[in-house]
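User: What would this chain look like folded?
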Amino acid sequence: MQRRDLLKSAAAGAGLTILRSGTLRGQNAPGNKLNIALIGVWGRGTAHYNVLANENVAALCDVNDNRLAEGLRIFPKAKTYWDWRKCLDQKDIEGVIVCTADHHHAFIANWALNRGMNVYCEKPLGITVEETRTVRANYLKNKAKLATQHGTQRHAYPNFERLRELILDGAIGDLKIIHGWDSRQLPRPGYPKGEGEPPSFFHYDQWIGPSPFHPYSPQYFAAPGPGNNCLSWNMYRDFGVGQMGDMGAHTMDLLWNAIDAGGPTGIEADMDVSDKFDPNITPVKLKVAFNHPANSWRGPVTVFWYQGGLKPNPPKSYFDVTRIGNGAIFEGTKGIILADFNSRVIIPNDDDGDMTYYKRRGREQLLPLMGGAGQVSGGRGGGRALSAIGNQAAAQGGRGGPGGRGGAPGASGPEFGPDGFPIVNLSPGGIPPNMATPNTSIQAAAARAAQAANGPVQVAGEHLFQDDWLNACKGRSNNVVNGTSSKTHCDFDYAGTMMEQMLLGLAAHRAGKKLEYDPAAGRVTNMAEANDWLKRQYRPGWTLNG
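Assistant: Here's the prediction, encoded as structure tokens.
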């Protein structure tokens, strides 16, 4: 027997995982560090600095040379790249974290899976139905040996599992209708015209990547701060899918975790209240209904999605849903649950809502939370009203915010010029705000990474969701199932069907009529031309399956 075969046999018996390098990974394996490639050092990439201190960052990749230099101050042993295709050829990489612009996500995830690499991909998983289905199918072929996670990190909040328990245990009777919404508004009149030249340190053509070429404009990089860069380009159809793939992904995750749904069979946009279709810009205002068939524990349900300030009617007149930036309403035969990311309220029916039908589980039957107690949700407990929490959420991520037009209490946004675009204040040398924003995370992250050289360090901040993936990569959760997700809480099966649904909503908006859909085949069955809208054309030299 070959040594590697002997190791495989022994590892299987011990519950360990053998990674591409041939090293053992398991709960008790020595030297338990993964070789990670961080693709996208700025933006969402900064959210991974802390947790990566305890791993081996073997590669950094970014289209901005200045951001790469910043990353090297934290992870000085990493090899650097500005082209992720070259990065993925590095043979010792075992896991990839994808934090690029949205139109690269499916490409990097699929290429990495093809190379036997574990993948953490920030949302959205793709920007077309075909992309999400391709990545999901690739993962399903490899799920026994690979771990994946979709970057909806709010899933670590305890409220996600507490909501699921209430729905499963019949707190509102039989589930019938679910509403979800996001309040953010990021209007644009169209693609910006070309203006100036890309900075010398920025690889603009690589940023464009597989999408059709558009001349450089500072508008694409106008929003300051690492967490806001996507708010300058994700509304353009060649680069993103607007709020359907941004806060829509986070909010739909709250619903998706509780309903165990797959692909919808019917999708219809309410064109009376939604924006008119624009071939260049995703809609700001949008309302879509998704029909889902029955599963093993519930009957058929309808999911309604609202965005851009559209909201469902409140369950009671004394609830003000306009103050909840991102929320959900679950309607059952015996009552209603109103929820946001961190809290929930049960509203039994007036007459027959006696709660005798609710089979409350004991503490020992509670669904396990990430890290044992779940991620601390920002100190929003203490009995604060859900509407007050919603007001804060609306101010932070609702209407307006960087790159958006205001309207929500406390929201702030840029000034808009007469052309309908935000006014961009360039730094010396013509550098747009997002490229000029200082990376204030470097010093603390570098110190933490240096400390980790002497042993694991305590990680601060929101890290349990990343830990969920890292532990799965190391074989610590091979037999764990979380609803419709395996090993992690938001694998590419769970997240793939969720994003497929959201992207079908954009297709129905374009159709202006109800679409009938076969989720097994991935085909619209009542409008042939709509199937062309489930995919996109790529620039020469770019392939999704590389």
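The first strand starts at residue 17 and ends at 18. If you want, I can go into more detail on any region.
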